Sequence to fold (97 residues):
Amino acid sequence: MAVAANRLSEIRGGFVVAEHGKVVAEIALPVAGLMSDRPYEWVRETLIPLRAAAKSLGGTLDEPFLQLAFLPLPVIPHLKISDRGMIDVDAFEIIDP
Fold:
C-alpha cells in the first residue's frame, strides 16, 4: 500500500496498481488528482494497461478507476470519502468514526 501511495504523491495524483511492493501500472492525473493535462488519446491508451493490471489482480469491474474517481467527490450521493473523513451526503454531515 505504501508503494502505491508514495507513487501517487510523486505523480501528483491519478491511479496506481501495485503488486508485491512494485508499481505495475499507473496514470498521472495531476489536475486536482482527477484530470490529466495530456490529450485524451494519451489518457485512453494509458488506461488500457492500467485496467489490465487491475484485472490481473482479480478485479472484476470493467471500469474500476471510474468508480474510484467518483468516490472522493463529496457532492455525489450517498456516502463519500473526503480528506475530512466519511461524508453522509444526504444529511450533508461528516460521519463520526
Notes: The chain has two domains: 1-60, 63-97. The beta strands are 14-19, 22-28, 79-82, 85-88, 93-94.
